[in-house]
Structure formats: structure tokens, C-alpha cells
Design goal:
single chain, disordered C terminus, globular, Naphthalene 1,2-dioxygenase Alpha Subunit, Chain A, domain 1, 2 domains, Rieske Iron-sulfur Protein, 391 residues
């Protein structure tokens, strides 16, 4: 974060704490619970969000060398993502142009050529069809029309993004999509952080509940009373919105000592900052590293999700560093899996049972309100808004 931005944030946070005030938005807001379980609503989200906006699918250092690749399966489409010898990242639908089988079945590796295991049609790293066994059987076929189908892809802030709504051969303007929030993240140096740990979690609840769990601090002293609750102040959540995206600043209990004059650590070390990169990526800045969470609709309908969790470290981890970070990661996973996700499973079950018509987002839950109001706006803009009939 730039010095002037940190200074302005410090003044706002300390003023609120000195006055004994928690940040509040203007009013409470009701959100229909049907958006978490209706199949038609999920279809509209897939069409309006996951097929038309830039989406984070990985980190650039997963493709450290020329010809490195990984396969990403969680967008609802199977993708091959690879780095060419020119340093450029390319993405293709993982679909053989012969009969439609997956070309690449390994999750990652290094290949100069991708060969479909069904009939051995093969493609180079630029997606060009370069090999057809018994080629005489396809005499007269237009080979150029049977290259791998490209997907618009970009590398920005160290992340790899795809955009299914953009022309595949045009550059995707991620900086423009993110706006000021991207500039702030660059100020933290996130583009230089290393992709260290990557876990994939599958859960029986809607993808939005993964995001929801990060967007308020109201629950910390209750759900997390024995884990992170004692360390982060509950109910303090200073929210700033940046178009679709948002930043939520929480404060650690240690900020009390800082305000009493103990400045042995900088102000930001006593905060926990959460960024929502709309629609489905949450970044948690933890003072010396980032956690990155990306939630996807699962294959089993509205009551399923695939969540990707990543640790982004500022330096290579080994020795004592490795042990400490692994321990912290395990604490995080246990907190999320044993507390947040348990609560989310119960919420999904109750929503689907029509036990209530709506959820209430309080004045201290401004980030939740912004996220869901933006979802509503995006669907309305796409002509897919069904909220009015769902309330």
C-alpha cells in the first residue's frame, strides 16, 4: 500500500476506534435465500458472471518455464493453460477438435506438444493442429479450422485471468477491470509473491457462501471464539467500494497497544485487509503474506462449490520459515473447515428447506450488502434479474 493511502486509512481507523464507533452502513438489507439454491438462478450466474467477466484461474509462477502447463477444470470448462517460449501465456479449451475428448489429462507438467489419448491428434503450444495419424482419412479437411479453440487470457498482478466474454486474440484489460483496487494491491507487491500452497476444497453449499464468510467480522467472537476470535476485533469492518470490487479493513486486538504508543510495528501490521475481486476471488492480506480464495459453482448444482485456497508468500520458504508457515496454514484450514464451512453447510440446508424467505444483512455487514447488490445489478444488466419475484 502506498504511504499516502496507508496514512489516510490509519487516520480513519484510529478516529473510529477513538470514538468507540464501529463502521456502519445506512440501513439493514434483506437478501432472498432462493439465490443460494435455485437452479435457474445459478444458470443465470453462469451466463452473466462466469461467462462474461475476468476470472482468476492461477498464478504466473505455476508456469515458471517455457512449455509449462496446467489444466484448470473449475470454470465449468476444461482449460489448458501454457507458457510459450516467447514468455506469453496462452489458454485453450481442453477439447480435441476431432471427437471432443480432453486432449490433456494430467493436471500439470511441461510439454511441447499436447496429444489426445483417444486418437492421438496432437497440438503445439500455440494450439495449432500438428499431427493426425492416418491423415489420408481426413483428406480435404481444413486443418486450420481444427486448431485448439483459444480463450482470452491475461497475466496481471501475478495472477492468470481468463475472460470467456472477450475476443480470444485481444488483450484483456485487467488493470482497467480492477481500477484503483489493483493499484493498491500492486503497492503491496502481490505481483512478486510466490504461489506456495494450493488446495482444492469441495463442499455441499452454494459458491456465494464461501465469499460471504469473508465479508463480515460480526461472527468472529462467536463462531471463532477459540481460534481467531481473540485476535481480531469483532464487528469492526471498514468497507470501501471500487465499482464491483471492495476492500474491507478489520483490526487486530494488538492495535490497542499501537494506539497507546507502542509503534514497534507499523500500523498495517495490526490490521487484516480483505479484498473482493468480483465476482469470486477473495484476497486476505495478513501482514506478511496473502491468502487467495476463489469460489466456483460446483458440478452438482446450486448446492455445491469448488473453492481454491492459495498461500502467496513473499519469499521462498524453507527451514524454520517452512515449519511456521505450514503450521499457520493448517490453523487456517482447520478454522475454515471446522467452523466456517460447518456453518455454511447448515445455512444451505436451511435455505433449501424454505425455512425462511430471506437473510438479513445488518448495518455492520456492509461488504456483504455491496457484494449481493452488485450481483443483483450484474444480473439485471444482463437481463437475467429474478430477484424481484424471489423476495
Amino acid at each position: 500500500m502506498r504511504t499516502q493511502d496507508e496514512s489516510a486509512l490509519r487516520e480513519r481507523v484510529t478516529a473510529l476506534l477513538s470514538e468507540g464507533c464501529d463502521p456502519l452502513v445506512a440501513e439493514t438489507w434483506e437478501n432472498p435465500v432462493s439465490v443460494y439454491f435455485e437452479a435457474d438462478h445459478l444458470d443465470r450466474e453462469r451466463d452473466s458472471l462466469f461467462s462474461s467477466l475476468p476470472l482468476v484461474i492461477g498464478r504466473g509462477d505455476q508456469l515458471a518455464e517455457p512449455h509449462d502447463f496446467f489444466v484448470h477444470e473449475h470454470t465449468g470448462r476444461s482449460l489448458i493453460v501454457t507458457r510459450g517460449p516467447d514468455g506469453k501465456v496462452r489458454a485453450f479449451h481442453n477439447v480435441c477438435r476431432h471427437r471432443g475428448a480432453k486432449v490433456e489429462w494430467e493436471p500439470c507438467g511441461n510439454r511441447r506438444r499436447f496429444t489426445c489419448p483417444y486418437h492421438a491428434w496432437s497440438y503445439n503450444g500455440e494450439g495449432t493442429l500438428v499431427g493426425i495419424p492416418n491423415e489420408e482419412g481426413f483428406e480435404g479437411m481444413n486443418r486450420d479450422a481444427h486448431n485448439l479453440v483459444p480463450v482470452a487470457v491475461a497475466e496481471h498482478l501475478g495472477f492468470i485471468w481468463v475472460d470467456f466474454g472477450a475476443p480470444p486474440n485481444e488483450e484483456v484489460d485487467i488493470a482497467g477491470f480492477l481500477g484503483p483496487i489493483g493499484e493498491e494491491l500492486a503497492g503491496f507487491g502481490i505481483q512478486h509473491h510466490r504461489h506456495d500452497i494450493h488446495e482444492v476444497l469441495r463442499e455441499p453449499f452454494n459458491w456465494k457462501l464461501v465469499v460471504d464468510g469473508f465479508l463480515e467480522t460480526y461472527h468472529l467472537r462467536f463462531l471463532h471464539r477459540s481460534t481467531i476470535g481473540p485476535h481480531i476485533r469483532s464487528n469492526f469492518a471498514l468497507v470501501d467500494t471500487y465499482g464491483r470490487h471492495l476492500r474491507m479493513v478489520g483490526v487486530r486486538q494488538s492495535l490497542d497497544d499501537w494506539m497507546r504508543g507502542d509503534h514497534s510495528e507499523p500500523f498495517l501490521a495490526h490490521t487484516a485487509i480483505i479484498y473482493l475481486l468480483f465476482p469470486n476471488t477473495v484476497l486476505v492480506w495478513q501482514g506478511d503474506h496473502f491468502e487467495a480464495w476463489t469460489a466456483w459453482p460446483g458440478a452438482d448444482g446450486a448446492a455445491s462449490t469448488v473453492a481454491e485456497a492459495r498461500l502467496l508468500a513473499p519469499r521462498p520458504l524453507d527451514g524454520a520459515d517452512r515449519e511456521r508457515w505450514d503450521k499457520n496454514w493448517q490453523i487456517l484450514m482447520r478454522t475454515v473447515l471446522d467452523e466456517d464451512f460447518v456453518a455454511s453447510r447448515s445455512m444451505q440446508q436451511n435455505y433449501a428447506a424454505n425455512a425462511q424467505s430471506h437473510a438479513v444483512f445488518g448495518r455492520q455487514e456492509g461488504a456483504l450488502q455491496h457484494f449481493h447488490k452488485t450481483l443483483r445489478s450484474e444480473l439485471a444488466t444482463a437481463g437475467a434479474d429474478t430477484y424481484a419475484t424471489s423476495v
